């Protein structure tokens, strides 16, 4: 499309495609923009839903910044923020490189049938909900589940005192990383495999003629040519650093681990829906969103400055 085209020329050329945008725009307005009116609850005092209808209660509630003040006065919130950052940083440091390594390995499988079969097995767990996935692992790591039974048979633990994996706060980070890797690595790997397969094979042929080994080809050809994909995926992961995976953590938490490992997402859910403090939970969610926006802009700027590539 020529950049010097007028709006009238663009409409004449591409106007027939506009009807296809209507459902997308309608859904975006309905589910993404109209609900943003609820952000105003963060700037309201106590909303009394027991005496008034929801809209009337919202109108009658006084304008206030007390919800934001409560965030920084709440000692639990600062601990929860620390949990969220710790879990996100661990996921980036431990889990982010693994799909790249697997993609490099799968790209070396020359049998197309075997490659597709193994990739399907790898990314199949992604389609399970976290409720199902956590249920599977809770059974595996239960008192006399498969993991403890194997450990007992190997003499690694006593039959009378099996490890309570999901009830032990000290095991939480290990289980979080293990289950998160099992479920998400295969799907992330697809992006890198696609990027590797799109590389012109003549680069590798020339490298082999020059005597380059497999590791040299990976570090001098493959990784530099998929650097843009890696950078994009890394920046997108950074923008979720204050999310930490609500679905996963919510299904893993219980009465034994909640006090130690609750994150912002589960805290907002508990305060907003279970304790009905909608203004405070909205303020936490809004602050979380603003911080995520700042992080992704800063992350893109820093990564682009050092690598020369970014999302924009």
What's the helix and strand layout?
Elements: H1 7-14, H2 22-33, H3 54-60, H4 66-73, H5 75-95, H6 97-106, H7 112-123, H8 130-140, H9 146-153, H10 172-197, H11 201-209, H12 214-225, H13 227-238, H14 246-252, H15 258-261, H16 264-274, H17 278-307
Helix pairs in contact: 4-17, 5-10, 6-10, 7-10, 13-17, 16-17
Taking all residues together, what is the mean pLDDT?
A: 85
Distance from first to last alpha carbon: 20 Å
The value of Rg in angstroms is 25 Å
Element-by-element helix/strand order: HHHHHHHHHHHHHHHHH
Q: Which shape, going by the Cα principal axes?
A: globular
CATH topology of the domain at 74-126 and 171-307: MetI-like fold
Please tell me the CATH architecture of the domain at 74-126 and 171-307 by its name: Orthogonal Bundle
Main sheet characteristics: none
State the share of residues found in helices, binned by percent: 55-70%
Structural class: mainly alpha
Low-confidence stretches: none
CATH superfamily of the domain at 74-126 and 171-307: MetI-like
CATH class category of the domain at 74-126 and 171-307: Mainly Alpha
Number of strands: 0
The quaternary organization reads as single chain
Please count the helical segments.
17
- Strand portion: under 5%
């Amino acid at each position: 499309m020529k950049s010097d085209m007028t709006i009238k020329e663009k409409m004449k050329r591409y106007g027939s495609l506009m009807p296809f945008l209507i459902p997308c725009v309608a859904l975006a307005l309905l589910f993404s923009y109209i609900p943003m009116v609820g952000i105003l609850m963060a700037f309201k005092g106590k909303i009394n839903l027991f005496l008034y209808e929801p809209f009337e209660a919202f109108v009658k509630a006084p304008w206030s910044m007390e919800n934001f003040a409560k965030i920084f006065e709440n000692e639990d919130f600062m601990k929860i923020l620390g949990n969220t950052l710790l879990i996100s940083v661990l996921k980036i440091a431990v889990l982010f490189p693994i799909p790249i390594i697997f993609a490099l390995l799968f790209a070396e499988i020359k049998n197309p049938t075997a490659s597709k079969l193994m990739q399907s097995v790898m990314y199949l767990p992604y389609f399970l909900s976290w409720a199902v996935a956590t249920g599977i692992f809770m059974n595996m790591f239960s008192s006399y589940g498969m993991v403890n039974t194997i450990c007992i048979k190997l003499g690694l633990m006593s039959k009378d005192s099996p490890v309570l994996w999901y009830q032990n706060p000290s095991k939480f980070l290990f289980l979080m990383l293990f289950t998160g890797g099992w479920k998400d690595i295969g799907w992330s790997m697809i992006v890198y495999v696609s990027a590797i397969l799109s590389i012109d094979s003549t680069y590798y042929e020339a490298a082999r003629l020059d005597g380059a080994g497999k590791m040299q080809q990976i570090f001098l050809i493959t990784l530099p040519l998929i650097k843009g994909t890696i950078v994009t995926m890394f920046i997108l992961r950074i923008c979720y650093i204050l999310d930490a995976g609500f679905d996963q953590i919510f299904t893993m938490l219980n009465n034994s681990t909640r006090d130690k490992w609750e994150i912002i997402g589960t805290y907002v859910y508990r305060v907003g829906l279970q304790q009905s403090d909608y203004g405070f939970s909205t303020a936490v969610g809004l602050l979380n969103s603003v911080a995520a926006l700042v992080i992704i802009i800063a992350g893109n700027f820093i990564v682009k400055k050092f690598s020369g590539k970014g999302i924009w």
